[in-house]
Design a protein that fits this description.
This protein has 200 residues and is an all-beta fold. It is built from no helices and 20 strands. It is globular and about 45 Å long. The N and C termini lie far apart (38 Å).
């Protein structure tokens, strides 16, 4: 299969990117407080979405393609209609950055990785906090659900690394320190959505 290169000019610092499930649109979160939607593979800018008062940290599409979520440094999460670019709802009042976002395969649960080391599971339609998971001593920069989407015991992974000057530090002399998570460096905790820590 030939490789396609998408060339875009985000005009600023790009903090996060995410493709729509059909691969036809790329969303980019920016330090200019906007989310930009780019046509694939032409690279044409389709829309610029404004709704955050801080820089955009993370963007993610729901697996059904009906919703896009973005988190901002001001502590809010916006849920967007990807077709119209309108904000459907906003979650606010968080005491820590939401450094990473991930949808469960059925699009009915949103996981957020926080700057204080917690992982929270939310109902994206109501804004209800379903449960809060602990196990990290630093910010959770990445999240991923197991992809099958069929078993009730769906699991979520979170990882974090030591940050220096806003960048993740990779220590060649101590590779076990990257990523560092929980109480033991180099361990990536694994939870069930019920909050049971399965590993790490």
């Amino acid at each position: 299969m030939p490789c396609q290169i998408l060339l875009v000019k985000p005009l600023g610092i790009t903090t996060s990117v995410a493709f729509t499930p059909d691969g036809k649109t790329l969303a980019s979160g920016s330090a200019d407080q906007t989310v930009k939607l780019w046509q694939v593979p032409s690279g044409k800018l389709q829309q610029t979405l404004s709704g955050h008062s801080g820089f955009v940290i993370s963007v993610v599409y729901s697996p059904d393609g009906q919703t896009m979520a973005s988190s901002g440094s001001e502590g809010t999460v916006n849920f967007w209609d990807p077709a119209s670019g309108e904000i459907l709802r906003t979650f606010s009042g968080h005491n820590s950055y939401m450094d990473s976002l991930a949808f469960l395969a059925d699009s009915q649960t949103l996981a957020s990785g926080l700057g204080d080391g917690a992982v929270e599971l939310w109902d994206p339609s109501s804004g209800e906090l379903l449960r809060k998971l602990s196990g990290h001593t630093g910010a959770v920069w990445g999240l991923a659900f197991y992809p099958d989407g069929k078993t009730p015991g769906q699991r979520v992974r979170g990882c974090n690394g030591e940050a220096v000057g806003g960048r993740q530090r990779r220590d060649a002399a101590n590779p076990q320190r990257t990523p560092g998570s929980g109480a033991r460096p180099g361990v990536i905790p694994l939870w069930s959505p019920a909050g049971q820590q399965l590993s790490g």
